[in-house]
Amino acid sequence: MINKKEIIAKFARNEKDTGSSEIQVALLTERINHLTQHLKDHPKDFHSRRGLLKMVGQRKGLLNYIKQKDIIKYRDLIAELGLRK
């Protein structure tokens, strides 16, 4: 799992930016990937599965917001995180 500070530094708009939509999506993506691996090892962990689904929904909402505001930034973020094929 990548360090949270590294993700923030990579996706920040400026040096004081810690909570922009892009950073939130990147952090959620990292947590989703980590939890997906956990659920492969523990398939009956339904409480974590519910948390995973909530995170996926939250990320989807943030991505829709970014898409409405700036389609170019959205496409760059999708490419950077490898979310779509």
What is the compact description of this entry?
Helix content is 75%, strand content 0%. It is mainly α and 85 residues long.
List keywords for this structure.
single chain, 85 residues, mainly alpha, Helix Hairpins, 4 helices, 75% helix, 0% strand, globular
Describe the structure in your own words.
With 85 residues, the protein is mainly α. The protein has a single domain, classed as Helix Hairpins, CATH 1.10.287.10. 75% of the residues lie in helices and 0% in strands. It is built from four helices and no strands. Helix 1 (4-11) runs antiparallel to helix 2, helix 2 (21-41) runs antiparallel to helix 3 (46-69) and helix 3 (46-69) runs antiparallel to helix 4 (71-81). The longest helix is centred in the C-terminal third of the chain and has 24 residues, at 46-69. The model has no long low-confidence stretch (mean pLDDT 94).
Number of domains: 1
Tell me the fraction of residues in β-strands, as a range: under 5%
Order of helices and strands: HHHH
Name the shape in a single word. Answer: globular
- What is the straight-line distance between the termini? 23 Å
Taking all Cα atoms into account, the compactness measure Rg is 14 Å
Please estimate the helix content: over 70%
Number of helices: 4
Structural class: mainly alpha
For the sheet with most strands, the description reads:
none
Assign the CATH superfamily: S15/NS1, RNA-binding
In CATH, the topology is named Helix Hairpins
Q: Based on DSSP secondary structure assignment, what is the total number of beta strands?
A: 0
CATH class: Mainly Alpha
Low-confidence stretches: none
Query: What is the averaged pLDDT score?
Result: 94
CATH architecture: Orthogonal Bundle
